[in-house]
Amino acid sequence: MGCVCGNNWLKSVAWALLVVSVHGCWLLLAAAEPPPGGRPRMSPLAEKVPLGSRYPCLTRAPDGRTYMCWLEPGPGQTTQLRFSVYRHGQFATPRTIAAGTDWFVNWADVPSIAALADGTLAAHWLARNGTQPYAYGVRVSCSTDGGQSWTAPFWLHDDRSACEHGFVSMLPQPGGQFLAIWLDGRAMENTGDTQLWSRRFDARGQLGKEVLIDKRVCSCCPTSMASVDNGVLAVYRDRSAEEIRDISYVQGDGVRWTRPRPCHVDGWEIPG
What is the pTM of this model? Predict the structure, then answer.
């Protein structure tokens, strides 16, 4: 089965299934907007994907197109990040974004893709940066030609310490930029805390200033963002000094953020 991610889940519902047959795998997508009163349509990719393909992730572009990326095995020990775009009632032939042998692959923390209104794309995945089991960071690559070619990957964060960096959400922004938030373990050695950071970047790999949003958050839960009337809304699982881990939200523009507030006071306590 697959996961749903992307930034427009409040406006539309889209989901993916990984279907295994004796001949291989098909990636199928239900129509992002089911016909009124009808059942979702299932549309196969233009070609089969190999066994071992997994973790599809969907996002809706500003122009209404739906993008899906996923991981699949490549030659030898290589892992590939592939993508396809859904248009005119079907998926286009998949293309490869990047491939590597040093990637960190995890069912809970999956790659994603985001698109600007002009078709510029950004994709992220996780790569190991140390020998410890959970030493990895966020790599990003961009495309300005619809995914036919991709830039050399760059690190999303300045910190290169051998710790966790992941659970990324990306959102298109005005001025040809993307906004990303992620969980960051750079402070864990000193305080034991995972933090939430943000940064803007563009397709040339030019990075804006890193911004610390919250200095103590839950270390193993996804983040999400959505565009709202007055900027950006980001949500994540927080972590108080009393080990209360309720969902919090902040609003801002990627450089300035409000103070975190709980979406609802659940009082969900998880020691440790």
Answer: 0.88
